[in-house]
Automatic annotation (TrEMBL):
It comes from Amycolatopsis roodepoortensis. It comes from the Bacteria. This is DUF4188 domain-containing protein.
Length: 172
């Protein structure tokens, strides 16, 4: 992996949605039940990455002690929800299969997700490969005036556009 030298941050001025999605191996000795769930996510990510209009900006696959998860960056919550509900794409059929399996074996595999509509975000990467927000959006060098996290966040490297703010106000 190519290391990005110096101090970099991200630049992105549109709506930003961070979506965490993962699974838990509740019965690790039942790979017949969790392997199909495990292999469904990479196929969905390929499908999204191949469609520049999908709204997916980027993603990272990670593991914690309970199982794998993905951190996804989206250009809008509407595009995230459109993908999740589109019957012609991979997610809906995979979700239907998971639900059928979960009814038969309710404690074998868990799935979870969290959705965040981001008003402001700051990031800092020093001597790392491209990853996270800079990889999903645009990588830029940290300017001298932005050497502190507080300053980067105060300047709002990611700002929620007014249409997204209006949707949030209407929802609340």
């Amino acid at each position: 992996m190519k290391i990005t030298p110096g101090r970099v941050t991200h630049q992105y001025d549109e709506e930003l949605v961070v979506f965490h999605i993962g699974m838990t191996f509740n019965r690790w000795w039942r790979p017949d039940l969790w392997l199909p769930v495990f292999f469904a996510m990479p196929a969905m990510m390929r499908e999204l990455a191949e469609d520049p209009d999908s709204g997916l900006l980027g993603y990272e696959f990670l593991f914690n002690r309970r199982g794998p998860f993905a951190v996804q960056y989206w250009s809008s919550v509407d595009k995230l929800y459109a993908y999740a509900s589109a019957g012609s794409l991979s997610h809906r059929p995979a979700w239907t299969k998971f639900n059928a399996m979960a009814r038969k074996h309710p404690e074998a595999v868990g799935v979870w997700h969290e959705t965040f509509v981001v008003e402001r975000a700051e990031s800092m990467f020093v001597g790392t490969p491209a990853m996270g927000l800079p990889k999903a959006t645009k990588t830029v060098p940290v300017e001298k005036r932005h050497h502190r996290a507080r300053t980067r966040l105060a300047d709002g490297a990611t700002a929620l556009p007014s249409s997204a703010e209006d949707r949030l106000c209407q929802a609340g």
